Amino acid sequence: MNKTTSFNDPKQLQFDRRYLEMAKIWAKNSYCKRRQVGALIVKNRMIISDGYNGTPSGFENICEDENGLTKPYVLHAEANAITKVAKSGNSSEGATLYVTSSPCMECAKLIIQAGIKRVVFCDEYHNPDGLSLLSRAGIDVVKLDIEEL
Q1: 6, HSE (Cβ side, Cα atoms, 13 Å)
Q2: What are the Cα distances from residue 86, in Å, to 41, 48, 52, 62, 137?
Q3: What is the DSSP string of 37-92?
Q4: Arithmetic mean of pLDDT, 79-83
Q5: Mean pLDDT throughout 45-73?
Q6: pLDDT at 1
Q7: Residue 84 has pLDDT above 90, yes or no
Q8: Using 50, 70 and 90 to split pLDDT, how confident is the model at 77?
Q9: Can you count the helices (H) and strands (E) in the chain?
């Protein structure tokens, strides 16, 4: 896996931390009880899309079933951000995705297809397959530790 941990550009590190902190704040919009994930897509230092995990538009904002398990139709933050930018007519080609949890395999496939070239995250998803796929596709994968907000 190609995890970048050192930075030659302190200004880029500062931007990465700030955008990741913003994604963490954005995650608080999620109605999901089990876990809240936020995502921002940034291109040329402008936020072009955002997302958090939750149900599709028009569905009730209840993510878990009666057993506390996540319903199968709940969208991940990355998927929400990518579909939102696609609907807007903007392009995520060459953009950076800031997401509070590393992407799963399904989201990694969407990230690759969306042309995103860099992913910055702070928490690791329990299955590392998504990160491996991103690295295999030549996407720069960066894990940052940020302080609690």
Answers
A1: 1
A2: 11, 10, 16, 25, 21
A3: -EEEEEETTEEEEEEESBPPTTS-S--B-TTSPBPTTPBPHHHHHHHHHHHHT---
A4: 98
A5: 96
A6: 42
A7: yes
A8: very high
A9: 4, 6
Cβ–Cβ < 8 Å for 139, 117: yes
Band of the pLDDT at 37, cuts 50, 70, 90?
Answer: very high
What does the alpha-carbon distance between residue 124 and residue 122 come to, in Å, rounded to a whole number?
7
11-34 burial, b at 16+ Cβ within 10 Å, e below that, comes to eeeebbbebbbbbbebbeebebee
Q: Catalytic residue among 60, 78, 124, 148, which?
A: 78
Q: Does domain 16-75+84-130 have CATH number 3.40.140.10?
A: yes
Active site residue 78: yes
* Site of tokens 């500062």: 14
Averaged pLDDT, 23-50? 97
